[in-house]
Design brief:
Length: 575
């Protein structure tokens, strides 16, 4: 009965989702910490807008899914997609710097092929062609990509699998397809196909659809320039699984990204621990000689900080860690839920803390509430499905994963290299591999989920959060994943459109020794901190799989600090 009520509420949420409220958004626009007056702020697609005042301040009304555009002569334009919780946006604008094209053209071209070969395994916007690697991010023309996992699994032929997934694709005569712009309307020309470097003038129907890793489309004009007149109808490029992944010498493992970069880590690059000065209210709570006295401090400070959910969360974290199992903790929780029941980011922060306390049923209840409030957020599906699994309700978890796949096809949002789709696919396969009995999966339908190694999953409760993660391997080589609008605009755009805030990494356990992960928090365009949840899965996909959860409050900016260390061994059976 409860499940029926939940899905009725979900259906109502899906219907009413488009009936969005208008947010009053305010903030300050700066450049290198100096206020920037007269910055133009407008809704994308609208001719009207406002400007910042002499102190760089502004206030504007916008609805969720609107795009706010911040522009100023000589500065890089910033575009922010408004969400349901967007109230404050403090924007730091950067100068627009133009480089001389002729300085490094040849060098960059050579380096680009090597770098793309390295990144191919983890970046789905790269395709291998008969003429080398192409990355859609710097190809110079529009390319459409399809992840092999998103193809219509029920199709027999490639053409049937592609129809409805690729924009501008339509069926031609017989078992052929036509691309938009391929020839004239009177005389349309079908595209050519390239499969792992081999050219075909007709659809390669011999191809096993399950063997396809990725597909890229080059439009007709650009295809003809690269392939000749034979490609005037466009090119459909197909890479099969495992064909072009650069691997370690003498190994079947993909190259370690840190090892391939000539980056030598120095201990001075990161401070020893991730700490910050505690707020005054936490200091006073710690000084209190009883639980009741600490709660009195909370009540007094609530008069000042009570409008901030992070005051409550920080107070709860103190009570969980220092004053567990007392009635005052539950009073604070109750006050928090009453005050911030309509704030999904705040509820998610509480969910992180409760999961750390192993209060799984309560976490599941919170994610159900968030699901109803955000029915079109991909993260809502993932969090709810994962929590059903953690709560050992495996069939319900698998059902939510399957529902997301169906939802994504209806929504027709293209997949991105390694975003939420990759996370959902990884976890679906893992669930089916480890729990076939509980899911009543037959032997013929079983899948191999043994990816081995260590999986690290990062989740954050504020989608505007920017940060760098620095991975240092046992040989002290490092690489940095930068989650910033400046460095990863397409990634951030994909996160906002689909609605997710998470990222997974797989660490090769054959690289034995200590891996360090360092964090540099860069802010979230607001004043409150962000909660980062890190889940480390050892022996991922194996029956001996174990996990460890760390919850970190991110607040101190622009300091590279140690987040965690991971010990990698070839055999974790004794862990």
């Amino acid at each position: 009965m409860k499940s029926l009520i939940f899905f009725i509420l979900l259906s109502f949420s899906l219907i009413s989702w488009s009936q969005t409220n208008t947010n009053s958004i305010k903030g300050v626009v700066t450049s290198y910490d100096a206020p920037l007056p007269n910055v133009n702020i407008s809704l994308k697609g609208s001719s009207s807008g406002i400007q910042t005042d002499s102190s760089g301040k502004y206030q504007i009304n916008a609805s969720p899914r609107d795009i706010l555009v911040f522009s100023y002569v000589g500065m890089k334009t910033v575009e922010i997609i408004v969400e349901d919780v967007t109230k404050v946006l403090n924007i730091d604008m950067l100068p627009m710097v133009q480089e001389l094209d002729e300085v490094t053209v040849e060098q960059r071209k050579k380096k680009g092929q090597e770098a793309m070969a390295i990144d191919y395994a983890t970046k789905k916007s790269i395709i291998q062609t008969a003429y080398g690697f192409i990355d859609a991010e710097n190809a110079g023309y529009e390319m459409n990509f399809v992840d092999g996992a998103s193809l219509n699994g029920g199709a027999v032929y490639l053409v049937d699998a592609l129809i409805g997934i690729l924009p501008g694709l339509r069926r031609g005569e017989g078992n052929t397809v036509l691309l938009r712009g391929g020839g004239s309307l009177e005389n349309p020309k079908p595209p050519i196909f390239e499969v792992d470097g081999v050219i075909f003038t007709s659809s390669p129907d011999f191809l096993d659809l399950n063997s396809i890793d990725r597909i890229a489309i080059i439009p007709g004009l650009k295809g003809a320039i690269r392939y000749g007149n034979i490609a005037s109808g466009g090119v459909i490029i197909i890479n099969t699984k495992g064909k072009f992944i650069k691997r370690e010498e003498g190994s079947n493992k993909p190259y370690d990204q840190a090892k391939l970069r000539n980056n030598k880590f120095d201990k001075s690059m990161a401070t020893s621990v991730l700490v910050r000065a505690a707020p005054i209210y936490i200091i006073n709570m710690e000084k209190a000689d009883s639980d009741e006295a600490a709660y009195t401090v909370f009540q007094e400070q609530k008069k000042i900080y009570g409008s901030s959910p992070y005051f409550f969360l920080a107070s709860l974290k103190h009570f969980y860690e220092k004053r567990a199992n007392n009635p005052f903790t539950f009073k604070i929780e109750s006050e928090f839920k009453d005050e911030f029941e309509d704030n999904p980011d705040a509820l998610k922060g509480l969910a992180y803390l409760l999961e750390d306390q192993k209060r799984i049923e309560e976490v599941l209840s919170l994610y159900k509430k968030i699901f109803i409030k955000r029915p079109r957020y991909a993260q809502s599906y993932r969090d709810l499905a994962n929590m059903y699994v953690v709560n050992q309700q495996y069939k319900k978890g698998l059902g939510i994963y399957a529902r997301y796949k169906s939802f994504r096809k209806m929504d027709s949002i293209a997949a991105i290299e390694d975003g939420i789709d990759a996370i959902m696919e990884t976890e679906t396969i893992n669930l089916m591999a480890l729990r076939p009995g509980q899911l009543a999966i037959s032997e013929s339908d079983r899948v191999d989920g043994d990816v081995g190694g260590i999986r690290v999953l990062f989740e954050w409760n504020n989608s505007e959060t920017e940060f760098d993660l620095q991975f240092v391997n046992p040989e002290s080589r490092y690489f940095v994943w930068s989650h910033t609008l400046e460095n990863e605009p397409k990634r951030i755009y994909d996160e906002k459109i689909k609605g997710y805030s998470s990222k997974q990494f797989l660490i090769d356990e054959t690289q034995e020794g200590v891996w360090k992960i360092n964090l540099k928090y860069l802010g979230n365009k607001g004043y409150d901190p962000t909660y980062l949840k890190t889940t480390i899965y050892y022996n991922y996909g194996k029956p001996s799989q174990k996990e460890v959860i760390e919850v970190t409050e991110m607040s101190e900016k622009n300091v590279n600090r140690e987040l965690l260390s991971i010990v990698a061994r070839s055999n974790f059976s004794n862990r």
